[in-house]
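[step 3/7] fold_predict: job queued, chain A
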Amino acid sequence: MTTANERVSPLDQRSFRDVLGHYPTGVCALTAIDDAGSPIVMVVGSFTSVSLDPPLVGFLPAKSSTSWPRIEQAREFCVNILGADQEDVCRQLSSRDPDVYARIPGGASLHGLPTIAGAIAWMDCRVHAVHDAGDHVMVLADVLDLGVARTDVEPLVFFRGAYRALA
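[step 4/7] structure written:
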């Protein structure tokens, strides 16, 4: 265990993860439609706003992700910001079950992208750029449309290795 004054080597991956686990992240589900018309779902905890002018957002999927290449090929996707009451939905969406989206209530955005019922906000996006970032890629996306669906619940967050709700 490291103390507050010790420096962590960037080569120590476990310590790196442990330290960054002390920084909470929001939880979003990205949804898209592939060329065959099948829904694609990917849960991300690295989503962030990037620019107001032009409106850009970003996230960092692992290069090992099987969902990201399919979303990248689709080019457009919907970001569904999950609420604190959607931990079970998040866990279902994180499964490797290819038909998981069929069991999650949802609809379609104005751009025809899949949405998740109960999400607190959504954004329709288009891939703007993809950059190499170690064992991940950094994705920048143009925001095409967005909205708030619920104001009665706090966002789902991930902190110290567990899903949490804001106090």
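[step 5/7] annotate
Residues 13-20 form the longest helix (8 residues).
The CA atoms of residues 49 and 93 lie 23 Å apart.
exit 0
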